Amino acid sequence: MAARVVLGWREWLALPALGIVAIRAKVDTGARSSSLHVDSQWRFVEGGVPWAGFRIATGVRANQVIEAQGPISDEREVTDSGGNRSRRVFLRTPLVLAGLEREVEINLTDRRGMLFPMLLGRTALARAFTIDPARSFLHGKPPE
After folding, report:
1. pTM of the full predicted structure?
2. Degrees to nearest 5, angle at CA 104 with 99 and 109
3. Fewer CB in 10 Å around end: N or C, the chain?
């Protein structure tokens, strides 16, 4: 079994297929799924398959807004930390973190008011990472 990479409770990661070169994420083993903040989202059909498009300001480059899209892999109810349930769109996309790339599932939601635009849940962490909750940003800052 390969050694697991140690992460802090917050890290920078990338979602390259969505055009996101760097975004701050809270690593949360208490959350099952991963969530990405979007400022707006919409749906459309491409080749008979449902897709979601969205806009996000990652905060990495001043006033840069990224517009991305991807095929919808699922849509299901998610319960947030406050106990509120909402139906969310899920996308499957490559994630790059600590030099590792893996396919993960993320849901699109409004995280406005939260300190981190991305929440990295335990299904994305499974079998690859160990968390040290006393440490932060173990894998450096985002690229300039």
Report:
1. 0.90
2. 115
3. N
Find, among 104, 97, 90, 98, the residue nearest to 38 by Cα. Answer: 90
Provide mean pLDDT across the span 85-95: 96
pLDDT in tens, 1-59: 678 899 999 999 999 999 998 999 999 999 999 999 999 999 999 999 999 999 998 76
For residue 136, being part of any structural domain is answered with no
CATH of residue 62 = 2.40.70.10
- Which residue range forms the structural domain that includes residue 80? 5-131
Within-domain flag for 139: no
